[in-house]
Amino acid sequence: MSLLVGLSATAQDIAQFLKPGHPDVYTVVKGDTLWDISGTFLSKPWLWPEIWQINPQIDNPHLIYPGDQIALVYVDGQPRLQLRRGDAGRTVKLTPSDTISLQPQIRATPLESSIPAISLDAIQGFLVQNRVIEPAVLEAAPYIVEGEAERLILGAGDRVYVRGELPDSESFNFVRRGPLYVDPNTQEILGREATYIGLGTAVAQDADVATMAVTSTREEVQIGDRVLPTEERRVDANFFPSAPVDDINGEIISVFSGVTQVGQYDVVVINRGERENLEVGNVLAIYKKGGIARDRIANENIRLPSERAGLLMIFRTFEKLSYGLVLATERPLAVSDEVRNP
User: Fold this and answer.
1) What are phi and psi of 175, to 5 degrees?
2) Are 160 and 200 in contact (CB under 8 A)?
3) How far apart are CA 77 and CA 7, in angstroms?
4) I need a labelling partner for 269 at 20 to 30 A (CA). Which of 194, 218, 311, 322 fits?
5) pTM above 0.85?
6) What angle do CA 2, 271, 239 make, to 5 degrees?
């Protein structure tokens, strides 16, 4: 994650976006998120990178811990937020005992976890488990043909038999075919959701049938579930809210809660991703798509203007689409509502 030192080039004075009644100093408490703190100081919290100033004297200045203080100061007439490290963000130095014959090493351990950008309760399962892949890749993946003792539903501690040759990997994900995402405007296939079911390890490979041990599950493993190597990537939840670099015009194409209306803290899928230069932490405005009205004079149907109705933050990106968490809504939203620059 890269941070901007000082103020980046903007056409407007950032001071105009300071929130009325903002504190001069804010002490971070457990349960805070960076989005909450940004909203304490700024009327547009996604402008945080424009006002954040790194103190090079502080270890890991991009991480903020409970007990830290965020101070508003002015540098060359422009507002800046500076970090004052509290006890929770300090490190404890641990060294091996002198009686143990080891090479001396120093390990620095923070006393408490840093605060996330947004609440992890809503997105934890999507950070490193669910993924979007090309449909052909999922269809070609090995799949479960039977469980031990011919059981159809299996869990942790069971063995399963998998048709197909397992790739070289230390651990595997059991996944289930999820929704196929298609761009509603171009009909381009954006990817297939591979829904995480559990973890497993390879026991043996005999011709094209492998034996695997189920080590943990989020839900019951079933016949037909696919097997993919565990992703090596790890998603950093310590990111900053920011505005997209490029103009974004997209739509909500799915919602994970299984409901038709989208509300606050729902996880949604949008049809824009890394190829549109979307990044983790980008904030987008949600616009309620205007309805269809009948123009009786012109004797034709017209679409009414879309109206701004909420905000979401991108927390995971793929090539052609992204996951976002709805941060605020002013009215019920739905699939096909629009997303744009904030």
Assistant:
1) -130, 160
2) yes
3) 11
4) 218
5) no
6) 20
Contact (CB, 8 A) for 313 and 241: yes
Name which of 2-11, 240-249, 312-321 the model is least confident about.
2-11
d(CA 323, CA 126): 8
Domain boundary assignment for the chain: 1-115, 129-229, 249-340
Q: At 104, is the pLDDT very low, low, confident or very high (cuts 50, 70, 90)?
A: very low
From the number of C-beta atoms within 10 Å of its C-beta (0-12, 13-18, 19+), residue 109 rates as exposed
| Superfamily grouping for domain 249-340 | FlgT, C-terminal domain (2.40.10.410)
Per-residue pLDDT of 300-335, as tens digits, reads 999 999 899 999 999 999 999 999 999 999 988 999
- Average per-residue pLDDT in the chain? 85
CA-closest candidate to residue 202, choices 231, 176, 156, 170:
170
Report the sign of the C-alpha dihedral through residues 185, 189, 191, 192, in that order: positive
DSSP 3-state of 136: helix
Per residue in 215-244, pLDDT (tens digit) is: 999 899 999 999 999 876 555 667 889 999
- What is the number of alpha carbons within 13 Å of residue 17 lying toward its C-beta? 20
